[in-house]
Amino acid sequence: MWFVPAHRDELLLRWSELGTSLGRVGPTWDLEGRRLLRSWARWPRRYHNTPHLRACLRHFSQVHNELADPHAVELALWFHDAIYWPWLPRNEEKSALWATRFMQEMGFDETMCEAVSSHVLDTRHQAVPHSVDAQWVVDIDLAILGQNEAVYRQFERDVRSEYRWVRWSRYVKGRSAVLQSFIDRPRIYSTSWFYERYEASARNNLQAALAALARNQLY
Question: What is the pLDDT of residues 69-120, one digit of tens each?
Fold first, then answer.
């Protein structure tokens, strides 16, 4: 099941421009963009959806001059949540595999394929990435944590909606562990650009959300 996402034409144009800059134009490239948007718009996504993709690309546009390989970063952002089923494991691994298969079909070299796949896998947020470009990808993905209170509150509601099938007591335990894992990090954002803009507000948001869960409430 899927629906036509908001900003579909804008995102398809963005995908087409990326293909042009990479020297990959034509029906195969265009079809992949439509496939990606259908996947990003599928039920039960409420946060990991096309507005999140659009937000990531907006942040990318702000920092692309800082990147060693902007094309690899942008491709990684397009694919990082291409597959997202909250009740299934290894979504990032499956998304990375999708990216790799498509890029190989389009004739990208192995270095590029490996870079994009690695960036996607780093959005599992298990550790600080080693490469600087991967740090940018991860910080872009986590930008939501440092947004204003109203935006962050909606984010928490949307995540809960994606996990509405999980019993509340179990959700509180699991979500609290996730939030605490970010609070416990010396830095949430690896790059100075994101750290200076969002670190303080991200910590405030996370602490408030964790406190709400401790009261058995959703922030």
Answer: 999 999 999 999 999 999 999 999 999 999 999 999 999 999 999 999 999 9
Omega prior to 44 cis, within 30 of 0: yes
Report pTM: 0.95
The secondary structure of residue 215, as a DSSP letter, is T
DSSP letters, 118-139, are HHHHHTT-SS--SSHHHHHHHH
Residues in CB range of 156: below 8 A, 6 or more apart: 209, 218, 219
Q: In angstroms, rounded to a whole number, what is the distance separating the alpha carbons of residues 2 and 85?
A: 13
pLDDT band, very low/low/confident/very high, at 6 (cuts 50, 70, 90): low
Q: Report which of 134, 115, 119, 146 is spatially closest to residue 190, judged by C-alpha positions.
A: 134
In angstroms, the CA 28 to CA 89 distance is 29
Helices of type H across the chain: 8-21, 27-40, 50-63, 70-79, 91-105, 110-122, 132-141, 149-162, 168-183, 192-214
Which three-class secondary structure state does DSSP give residue 81? Answer: coil
The CA distance from 48 to 35, in Å, is: 16
Instruction: Name the token pair of 161.
Output: 């909606």
DSSP string, 42-60: -TT-SSSSHHHHHHHHHHH
Tell me, rounded to whole angstroms, the distance of Cα 92 from its chain centroid: 10
Whole-number Å distance between alpha carbons of 158 and 179: 15
Distances (CA, A) of 199 to 65, 84, 193: 21, 27, 10
